[in-house]
Amino acid sequence: MNIRLGTRGSRLALAQATLVSRLIRSSNPSVQVEIVEIRTSGDRIQDVVLGPALGQSFFTKEIEAALIAGEIDLAVHSCKDLATAQPAGLCLGAILEREDPRDALVAIGGRRLSELAPGSVVGTASVRRQAFLSRHRPDLAFENLRGNVPTRLDKVVEGRMDAVVLACAGLHRLGYEDRISERIDPEILLPAAAQGAIAVQVRCDDVPVHSVVGSIDHAPSRVQVVAERACLNTLEAGCQAPVGVLARPSGRERLRLDAAVVLPDATARGFLAGPSAEADSLGRSVALDLLAQLAVDSLRDLGLGRDVDPAEGL
Q1: How does pLDDT run across 202-241, given as a tens digit for each residue?
Q2: Fewer beta carbons under 10 A from the terminal one: N or C of the chain?
Q3: What pLDDT is stored for residue 307 in this prediction?
């Protein structure tokens, strides 16, 4: 059996695709995997801040279109780049074992967040990261930063920025783990929903591929992702929404979900623990609590709805 695996062509995306390919072949020795690189809107447009200007699904749209058209058999994504509502006919065939979901600070001299001088320039294009960190360190300056991981890290090496914030998982997968100055405590900076998880997307009716992909699914990670995506979906949060969500084990077959929305004039934060089997309802319950705190029915009411999908890159 031959399987065509679609992915973005960035170094990180290819590292993730290679990992999926290796796991599939290890579990299914008779299967051959071909990696197909697909250029997305988010890859082509690098001089625009992530947001409505790029349209919807800018890191996944072209790959999902190829999957629907049968040009590839499965797609590999950073799970946090996927819209909570998938295109008709597509579903998540597998979630790989999740890496560290936290955000990482990479700073000059290996400084920690508390050691950055007032006025230090921190690079990130993520509204979420800026909102949470500004609440904790209002004396810092933030500068929008896009590009691949080496390019962002070079900003610190060259002294053009005092620090940058990236996902721990991506730095680990690319071999840059030694550059991390601090793994930021979720009490300070809650990760994006599904950060650190790799998603394998398939056509819902493709039974043979489902069977192959199911062999690499990691059930505990899937439960966490389900809870976090349910929370984001209930909030109706767009990528410009400063929302953090994190699900963690809390005893045997139990899950704790923390979530927060950080706004200039209001912050809503809450958590709930419950059975892992009820991950979807747990996510929805936490989201409803946040909306009640903000006295809105949806983040759309605050202009933070799903104008684009909740993708922010690494």
Answers
A1: 999 999 999 999 999 999 999 999 999 999 999 998 767 8
A2: N
A3: 47
The beta-strand segments (E) located in 68-197 are 74-78, 90-95, 103-107, 121-123, 141-143, 163-167, 182-183
Given a cut of 70, whether residue 309 has pLDDT beyond it is no
Strand (E) or helix (H) holding 243: strand 243-249
Instruction: Say which DSSP state 40 is in.
Output: -
Count of CB atoms situated within 10 Å of the CB of 91: 13
Distance CA 164, CA 251 (A): 34
Verify whether residue 139 is a known catalytic residue. Answer: no
Counts for the chain of helices (H) and strands (E), in that order: 9, 13
How is 259-312 classified by DSSP, letter by letter? EEEE-SS-EEEEEEEEEGGGHHHHHHHHHHHHHHHHT-SSGGGGT-SSSS-S--
Q: Which is catalytic among the residues 43, 73, 81, 297?
A: 81
**Rounded Cα distance, 212 and 312, in Å:** 30
Listed residue (57, 68, 67, 65) closest to 5, CA to CA: 67
Query: If you compute the radius of gyration of the chain from its CA atoms, what whole number of angstroms results?
Result: 19
Identify whether the C-beta of residue 312 lies closer than 8 Å to the C-beta of residue 128: yes
Contacts 24+ apart (CB under 8 A), 210-213: 210/93, 212/1, 212/3, 212/24, 212/27, 212/28, 212/31, 213/24, 213/74, 213/93, 213/94
